[in-house]
UniProtKB/TrEMBL annotation:
InterPro entries: G_ENGB_dom, GTP-bd, GTP-bd_ribosome_bio_YsxC, P-loop_NTPase, Small_GTP-bd. CDD domains: YihA_EngB (cd01876). It comes from Paenibacillus curdlanolyticus YK9. This is Probable GTP-binding protein EngB. The keyword GTP-binding applies. Residues 22-195 form the EngB-type G domain. Necessary for normal cell division and for the maintenance of normal septation. The keyword Cell cycle applies.
Amino acid sequence: MKITSAEFIISAVRPDQYPEDALPEIALAGRSNVGKSSLINRMILRKNLARTSSQPGKTQQLNYYKINEQIYFVDFPGYGYAKVSKTEREAWGRMIETFLKVREELKLVLLIVDIRHAPSKDDCLMYDWLKHYEIPICIVVTKADKIPKSKWDKQIKLVKETLQADPTDKVIMFSSELGLGREQLWDYILTETSD
């Protein structure tokens, strides 16, 4: 995919703030520090449009990025981070659930998990939620550069088993460092968003 334009649009917390131009939306969900911002930056070949942070739990809204005037990436707050108060966590949960239930423009959720660990309880909950709302999912397994290639298959199998993933769900291995999986992921996104 050739990127001609990419811009940050808005940090939304309520449905009345979501963009109204009806472009297809791809949401990114995953625990804090799993590499969502790095993935966005690699996908659009920009160093820091999506701000990465060493401080987990930094994203607290739905961050909208418009790509090529034809599609949005919507970056969800990372979940499962202990230093955020219970009240804040519940507010995020409600915000994300509302988005998943009402957003007709949402075409696909990238569920992002770290290849080095089995998916967390929160990852499994998010997966089950998406299945419940019948939202198409692509499981993106990031940080592939952090483990030897010889372990990739074993870790992918662990991810699928832990999530009890539907065999029809697409699984893509990704590395923001190496650019691994970028073309494959774009191909899949474009297939899912072309009506």
